[in-house]
Amino acid sequence: MTPLYHARKSDWRWFVRAFALLTITLPAVAQQVNVSAPLTADEMMGRVVEMNEVRAKALGSYSSIRSYHLECHCLSHKKADMVVRTDYQAPNKKEFTIVSESGSGTVRDRVFRKLLEAEQESMRAENQQRSAITPENYTFQLSDHEKTETTGTDDFYVLDVQPRSKNKFLFRGRIWVNAKDFAITRVEGEPAVNPSWWTVRTDFKRSYRKIGDFWLPESNESETKVRVLGTAVLSIEYRDYRITRAGGATEASPHSDALAATVAEEF
User: Fold this and answer.
1) pTM beyond cutoff 0.70
2) Which of the four pLDDT bands, split at 50, 70 and 90, describes residue 102?
């Protein structure tokens, strides 16, 4: 068996490994804390970790709709789409329901479904600890302190992040932390571990948006280059959140009524 033949048979495995880091999400309830002076990187992450304990207790459950799209500019051009409903129950239970799918069966079976399996694996308590953005897993250095371009009212700390160990759940890159809510609102980087010799590079961007008092995933984008085979671009868009706080109160994103309508139409 030649190396090229082996790569063609298992190329999707390398894509899944590279994309798997996108499955790690950071749902967080926003809690405003007054800060009179800019913080150091260690002080900032100390506040984030401190608030995580509050966030874990505040989020009861949520449901949402997400849309996967992958286009592979490879030896043979492939693309596919999948719409998935997600039901999350604190602290570590997720269930997925495929609402619709189209395009390459290979991509849907060997990438999208494998990504859903990897996300469920990441929900295990030990894997959540290994993937958490904490001083135990990363070192942090303050890179910038900026305001939003639209309103100029929100301060964000930009931190350079380096993993302390080689772990498939970790990454190296940058994070943006909201200085009011002490919530991570944006992540950019690459996996700490190259999943294979065949993988040249994977770059990803992940953003969060505030829904009521919560910051939840808004979008994921990733580009993976594989030797000989080509480049795969994956995007995941999240919408139609319905959130239940631990106390029972509910919150919803704008146009969240579309969630029920979308599921009803597909079934």
Assistant:
1) yes
2) very high
